[in-house]
Design brief:
Helix content: 40-55%
Order of helices and strands: EHEHEHEHEHEHHEH
Oligomer: single chain
Number of helices: 8
CATH architecture: 3-Layer(aba) Sandwich
Radius of gyration: 15 Å
Strand order of the largest sheet: 4-3-2-1-5-6-7
Distance between the termini: 9 Å
Mean pLDDT: 95
Structural class: alpha/beta
CATH topology: Rossmann fold
Shape: globular
Number of strands: 7
Low-confidence stretches: none
CATH class: Alpha Beta
Largest sheet: 7 strands, parallel
Number of domains: 1
């Protein structure tokens, strides 16, 4: 694996564990010479992803839509920053650039980005691994909802067949690299 896309929040969350886990994950990715693609922001966990990668000598590429760039939330010190027209172009470019996908805690945008790449995998647009870092049980309710969708007969594959969900950074990286 050469490059992984990270989807995460433009906010920090209410506990410092989210920041700490983000820093540890990114540091370990950089140590393994894995480049990072992310949403291009300088705020929240996105900013932590960028700053951690840069401070440890990593290569980090941002992809940011014009609207967010104009709101002055773009990180301008990245290895590379793509400015795109809209969120659709952002997701498509991030998917093209990445060999796998990781979701950290975040909001609706994070969920939407990750579930879209999972949908693309399900219908055969790619076979890249997907993983959720479940810091502090952040994704526990998401997992329960997927179980409900499966019980109700709306999933082609269980969540465990589509993605790795773990609170262990080592397990997450190993799973991404083994896929």
């Amino acid at each position: 694996m050469k490059r992984v896309a990270i989807f995460c929040g433009s906010k920090m969350g209410r506990v410092s564990d989210y920041e700490t886990a983000t820093q540890v994950l990114v540091k370990q990715l950089v140590e393994r010479k894995i480049e990072i693609v992310y949403g291009g922001g300088a705020v929240g966990l996105m900013g932590i992803v960028a700053e951690t990668a840069l401070s440890h000598g990593g290569t980090i590429t941002g992809v940011i839509p014009d609207k967010l760039y104009e709101m002055e939330v773009a990180h301008t010190g990245l290895s590379k920053l793509y400015r795109v027209k809209d969120m659709h172009e952002r997701k498509a470019l991030m998917a093209d650039l990445a060999d796998g996908f990781i979701a950290l805690p975040g909001g609706v945008g994070t969920l939407e980005e990750m579930t879209e790449v999972m949908t693309w995998a399900q219908i055969g647009y790619h076979s890249k691994p997907c993983a959720f870092l479940n810091t502090n049980g952040y994704y526990d309710h998401f997992v329960k909802f997927f179980e409900h969708m499966e019980e109700e007969g709306f999933l082609y594959k269980s969540l465990s067949q589509q993605a790795t969900i773990t609170d262990s950074i080592d397990q997450l990286i190993d799973a991404i690299l083994e896929s």
